[in-house]
Write a structure and sequence with these properties.
It is a single chain. The chain is mostly helical.
Length: 217
């Protein structure tokens, strides 16, 4: 019972931390009350991240797409970097402590490989900020492909670095990348699907509901 109470307190503390971080993001953004675009951009990212909780093929997720979307629409770099990372971290907490709880002992705040996930997200945001200064179907397609490649390279490098399955040498690294190849197609398909869904939906929303803008706060 004592262990359960500790885990509940840790879980509650974590959600309180996430809530405070969200409030900080909203307070720091100028004109949030007069900027519905920003609200919907954040909402799109968090809803897309929550899609990870829906049963899906391995690696067919919105992880890369939310970083592309954030990089395209957030004008402030710190928002583009931190919102996708927090969204993925939040869904990681839900997945690791609810869906995959049987694989861990106690409450899991962060896993060993999250650093590599966050690094991949930030690099994808940087790519999107470079390629999507002008948003077009072709540019979004290119950013989506690039996002998949970045995530594949960084995540499998992380597996090789922290896992005991592969020897700490170049052949071991190549073996890790080879083992990850079957999942790359799903990553690619997931990024293309969710980029299409997010950019397409936001374009419709932007046209008929919001004030048209290529960038937000």
């Amino acid at each position: 019972m004592y262990k359960t109470e500790i885990e509940i307190k840790q879980f509650a503390s974590c959600f309180a931390l996430i809530f405070l971080m969200e409030k900080t993001i909203m307070k720091q953004a100028e004109g949030i009350k007069n900027n519905p675009n920003l609200f919907f951009i954040v909402l799109f990212i968090f809803f897309a991240a929550l899609s990870r909780l829906i049963p899906h093929p391995p690696n067919f997720t919105a992880v890369g797409a939310i970083a592309v979307f954030g990089g395209a629409y957030f004008n402030r770099k710190w928002l583009a970097w931190i919102v996708p990372v927090i969204a993925v971290w939040f869904t990681d907490i839900l997945l690791n402590n609810i869906v995959y709880a049987q694989y861990y002992e106690g409450f899991v705040l962060v896993t060993n490989n999250f650093l590599f996930t966050a690094t991949a997200l930030i690099l994808i945001v940087l790519l999107a900020q470079t390629l999507l200064k002008k948003i077009s179907v072709l540019n979004v397609f290119g950013a989506s492909i690039g996002a998949s490649a970045i995530f594949f390279l960084i995540s499998n490098f992380g597996v090789w670095l922290i896992s005991a399955y592969y020897p700490a040498n170049i052949p071991g690294l190549l073996a890790a990348y080879t083992a990850g190849l079957p999942f790359f197609l799903n990553t690619l398909a997931g990024d293309l699907f969710y980029c299409t869904l997010m950019f397409g939906s936001f374009a419709v929303l932007n046209r008929y509901v919001l004030t048209p803008a290529t960038k937000s706060a």
